[in-house]
Amino acid sequence: MAESMKGLKRSHRCGELSAADAGRNVTVMGWVQKQRNKGGIIFVDLRDRSGLLQIIFEESDCGAENFAKAEKFRSEFVIAVTGTVEKRAGAVNENLTTGEIEIRAKDTRILSEAQTPPFPVEADSKTKEELRLKYRYLDLRRPDLQGNLILRSNIAAAIRLFLTKEGFLEIETPMLNKSTPEGARDYLVPSRVHAGSFYALPQSPQLFKQLLMCAGYDRYFQLARCFRDEDLRADRQPEFTQVDMELSFVDVEDVIEVNERLLKYVCKEAIGLDVALPIPRMTWREAMERFGSDKPDTRFGMELTDVSEAVKGCGFGVFTSALENGGSVRGINVKGQAAMPRKKIDALTEFAKGYGAKGLAYLCVMPDGTYKSSFARFMTQEQLDGLVKAMEGEAGDLLLFAADRTKIVWSVLGALRLEVARQLDMIDPDAYHFLWVTEFPLLEWSEEENRFTAMHHPFTMPMEEDLEYLDTDPGRVRAKAYDIILNGTELGGGSVRIFQEDIQEKMFEVLGFTKEDAHERFGFLLDAFKYGVPPHAGLAYGFDRLVMLLVKAESIREVIAFPKVKDASCLMTGAPDVVEEKQLEELSIAIQVQDESGLS
Ligand code: ASP
Hints:
This protein has 600 residues and is of the alpha+beta class. Helix content is 30%, strand content 23%. The longest helix is centred in the first third of the chain and has 23 residues.
């Protein structure tokens, strides 16, 4: 039977006690990690979120009744113990902060009994993730997850403290909205009162934060929950948290400046990391040219080289036809890997195909200076020498090439570079490389929709020097948009916003919105702009990702208390689930399930 808390008060968390407390009378409460009955003496490891503490029960100290209770303890029982802190008589446990002490129990209560858990509650669990997520409340007791969530809370607190000191106001924006323009699919919530109408859950607070700037709030931030109904991807969550901010009377430099100090502060507070300022910067163009990615991992080299010039007019059709079709030929130099077995190169080729490559061409510079290559027979010695020189190839190097439309070449080599570095262990896991990527293209051509779409969102300001191309050559217009990258992961991004009506209208036009469309969707923002709008800009971080990288977790699921799995379901609660007919009726909703042929 569970005993009550009546007359009992916890004096300390388990991990808060140390040798300095020797002699003190304390009351601790928590979960039994382990109970060892050695006859006349019972050892208990007691656990709470702060750590483990050893308790000793001896009948001569605690009496027969309490000793009998201690004999009943099983793992995960919740107990309270009152006793005295003592220096350990036995061996000191250096792995525990409380390793020098133990509590000699005088009194105890069983607050709650426990069934045997489906997996052991301990760090570095080898338990399958599905089982852990089904019993997330037990999983969350494990010290590594508790550590992650404690750090998450500390990071949030540091962000709040810093931004508040910098004059930012924390303001909440609504969850039930009209569709936002971020470009992913919305989660919809049916309205009961307005039958047939739906709210959209926010993909981000974008429009509201811009309206707050119109309203004069100057500097806003929010730890905002966002929802995006995207296709299944391994490390995505349908709902996630952003550190969202917006500032008035600023330009790119101002946003970057305050965010650099924010990152420096948070990294120092959270993990004691010193971030050197200023954070390096690179334009989008440079990032693509050098790393084949708009979120380059700069912890290692192996940069891309454009060899289009060197292979021009050579006899290798794969190269020349890529050039003839307006594409390019680029390569990476895998230093010292000329002896890579053919099988491994074939596997890399398969990998590259996953990114749209038709194949991968390779050239090994052998130790004697000769070449072993998939395409040597199509080229003269002179052409080959020229190519190797362009790649700065030396004896022992493996050169890998992709030839196609430049967009594909970048994406193939960008991914390949990361894969090779991973395979060859070239990445220092302790390094933190921050990077700003700036001057993104404003627009992206969508093959599917046969029109331009906004690379960031429709409110992003073009660079002033490119405004003239908005009519004539929209594809070349660069944006006042920036991303902050950490170790090859996009931590956040933002932009300076358009605040001039004529530019906004032009932008909508380029995106293929009619005036009516634009007004239907964003009329309230456009109207607000008519009443005096300050120039403004902002940025949002993926908070889950930031925490994940700072705690070095493998997945964002390790830093979210109750995450969903890949198909957006919750293994613990079973959400999403069917609802009662009556609820649907109230919402005027009839369900029509389609079979695979699309017929109902
Ligand atoms: N709302 C944007 C996003 O979610 C960030 C921003 O532009 O501030 O990516």
